Amino acid sequence: MSSTATAPTRPLVGLLLRTKLRGIANRVYHTVDEAPVRLSAAAILVGLVWFGLYQLFSSLFGQINNTPLEATVALPLVFNFFFLAMLIMLTMSNAIIAYSALFNRAEAVYLLTAPLTPRDVVTLKYLETLALSSWSFVLLGLPLMLAMADQAGEPVFYVLFIAFFLAFIPIPGALGLILAWLTARYVPRKAVRWAVTGCVVIGLSLILVAVRSMQFGHSGAELWLRDFFRRMSFVESVFLPNNWVAQGIDHALYGQLYESLMYLLVTFANGLFLSWLAVMIVAARFDRAFDRASAGGASGRRAAAPASGGLAGMAFWYLTTPLRLVAAKDLRTFLRDPLQWSQLAILFGLLALYLTNMPTLRLEFGQTNWFLAIPFLNLCAVSLILATFTCRFVFPLVSLEGQKLWLMGVLPMERGRILLAKFAFSMTVTTVVAVAAMVLAAIMLKLALVWTCIHLVITISICFGLCGFAVGLGARMPSFNQPNAARIANGVGGTVNLLASVALVAATLGGVGVATYHSTLSPLRSLPDTSTLLLCGAAASLSVTSGLLALRYGARHFARAEI
Amino acid sequence: MTHEIDDCGILLASVRKSYGDKVAVEDLSLEVRRGELFAFLGPNGAGKTTTIKLIVGLLQPDHGVVQVCGHRIGSNGLAAKAQLAYVPDQPFIYEKLTGREFLYFVAEMYGMSRVRRDDILDRLVALLDIGEFMDRLTERYSHGMKQRVVLAAALLHEPSVLVIDEPMVGLDPRTVRAVKDIFVEQTRRGGTVFMSTHTLDIAEAVADRIGIINRGRLVAVGELHELKQRAQRQHSLEEVFLQLTETGANE
């Protein structure tokens, strides 16, 4: 017997993409059929946030346009920085998702045993990675570009600016793909943990050095600003893609359409070329990289920690033994996955660097009303970072139990208590980190004790609300069949949680913002009055109550869920 | 490379594969001929799955040669893959496709015409009794239902070589019987079946030859009566297996 099947002579990427699209269509069809309210709510929330962002950016650009000098000087640099930051973040995000998609998933194993060329497989996974890692960037970036096009005033700019955005995305995608392949091919599995740790430490050190080198000296604001622009001129290198986009936008805003088009074509051509190059390089050497990633040699052997002892035992001392065991298991799982904790370390490391550099701004808090505004902005920054953290890391916790519910589901414990353990785990981690950040900020800014206490109460209440949302909505909208945490966070449920979390932070900080503004009108350094305290108390209560309701909502569904 | 096989079978010559410091397969030489049903046995962690992954091209040997139907895996892997089908112990299936959509996808990947696809599919649907749930999303299938659809997908392009890891896990007795018949039919028509299993009864019942691997080395290979003679046990494959793999267990 001999099979009549032959090695394919044509690329099968089209077939693979059609199959993927068929899967997406099926998913949408079934969600519309089975949970139309959920889908509609998600679509409406996304629309609202999208519109809100558009309005925000529009008013911001309107303000900048009213101060032409600042706009002239600052805008190109701001865009350069924005797209440089996007380049770095998207490259890392693409690398992580591409590694998982190419070297760590059952689908890759299946496709590699099918009569497909490595180029087919790599192309498919590249496009999938690009879509997965960039969709939120597109969703949040489009209002920015449209708001800018408003300022330009010509309809053609709407198309042009969106085209810039889309032409830019393949560049970090291609770099991420190469990075994922290099990791699989040349970094032994055992060393990945150390490599990630090293990268985090080196990255944060470099940023520290860079920030230190930009310290506000004794030379005065104008000289410092000039010096700052001179130091930052490296982001305007003609070889950097962020500069092509920034230049293109800048030319468009000045009505120089042809120059702008040239930069668009440069970006587009480089994106396509880099994509082609990355796919060809990775495909040509994919077999060896896959082999190395599969057989990379880590024994994974480690001394067993006591079930509820050690660090976990200390961190969750206030829980009953069964809950402590579940929370301790989650903490160990988190700490043993370098891709998970490294992202948290980068997030809060950057925040710590920013906070420790606050004194270099040399703001004269004693003579202006900034003495409360800057700490309030810090509170906003910490809260939004917390929202990002809970959406990315806490929301998937319940879904990730999907494959293990044979154990969790039959434990002699109410299912709702499993959620309580998840909540305790996330609340402990976020509170420790957030309170540390806020105390650091208060010390750096020499914030009055009473305001420090108010900010700490608000921070803890926001931690409570966000963790409640992430665990509750994670239980209400789980993806039990999805083993990838990033994909769970990027799904419909994750998006709903992100939007709900941002809304919660906005509502809570709205109250605190009003209280802060009210206090800045009072005599300097005076104690907050009763109405200020009541407003802050109401904001904290809102956050805690919302978190409790979300937890209850999730627990009720989770208790009834047929898994 | 010692020699090549022209026929549609499997050849492993002096193959070695290690995971870092741990040697998973050492000096493995084995030939599975056309029309043969070969059962590959061994304790957990003995190197069975590594051997299978080497055969289907998921892993590259550190040393030695792997060939399928005369095509060397690695240098001519695509031609080899067109001739083989692989069913892992935890098979992959697109969860958001129906069984039928998944099977159509597989058929198109192997370049089958619609007529031929429908012809073979009708036969497999009846044989594996999958018609009732073919048009439902696979995410709602039980393990056994998934296993049956995956088997259908593996057999759809009529592979010359079928490599299968733990084929009977999760199947009901009727399907187990059907799968045994499919294996026998596959070999009767000149195909090759390489089956890794812990279910010794099935190996005993259907295998033409049996190989036993222990701690990465092939410790015995032959027909059942040859293994029994070698182990000086005349009763069951279980006893033979236990004796031949005793060394590893005791160490």
Q: Can you give me a brief rundown of this structure?
A:
The complex is a heterodimer of chains A (563) and B (251). Chain A has helices at residues 13-34, 36-65, 68-103, 106-113, 118-152, 155-168, 170-186, 189-213, 221-231, 241-253, 257-284, 286-294, 310-315, 321-335, 338-356, 370-394, 396-400, 405-408, 415-445, 449-476, 485-490, 492-520, 530-560.
Describe this structure as you would to a colleague.
- With 563 residues, chain A is mostly helical.
- Chain A has 2 domains: 34-295, no CATH class; 309-563, no CATH class.
- Helix content of chain A is 79%, strand content 0%.
- Chain A has 23 helices and no strands.
- In chain A, α7 (170-186) crosses α12.
- The radius of gyration of chain A is 25 Å and the shape is globular.
- The relative contact order of chain A is 0.08.
- The model of chain A has no long low-confidence stretch (mean pLDDT 80).
- With 251 residues, chain B is an alpha/beta fold.
- Chain B has a single domain (10-250), classed as P-loop containing nucleotide triphosphate hydrolases (Rossmann fold), CATH 3.40.50.
- Chain B is 39% helix and 24% strand.
- Chain B is built from 10 helices and 10 strands.
- Chain B has helices spanning 48-55, 77-83, 99-109, 114-128, 143-155, 173-188, 200-206, 224-231, 237-244, 246-250; strands at residues 10-19, 22-32, 37-41, 63-68, 71-72, 84-87, 161-165, 192-196, 209-214, 217-222.
- Chain B has a 6-stranded mixed beta sheet with strand order 6-7-8-3-9-10, with helices on both faces. A 4-stranded antiparallel beta sheet of chain B has the order 2-1-4-5, with helices on one face.
- In chain B, β7, α6 (173-188) and β8 form a beta-alpha-beta unit.
- Chain B is globular, with a radius of gyration of 18 Å.
- In chain B, 47% of the residues are buried.
- At the A-B interface, α1, α4 and α12 of A face β1, α2 and α3 of B.
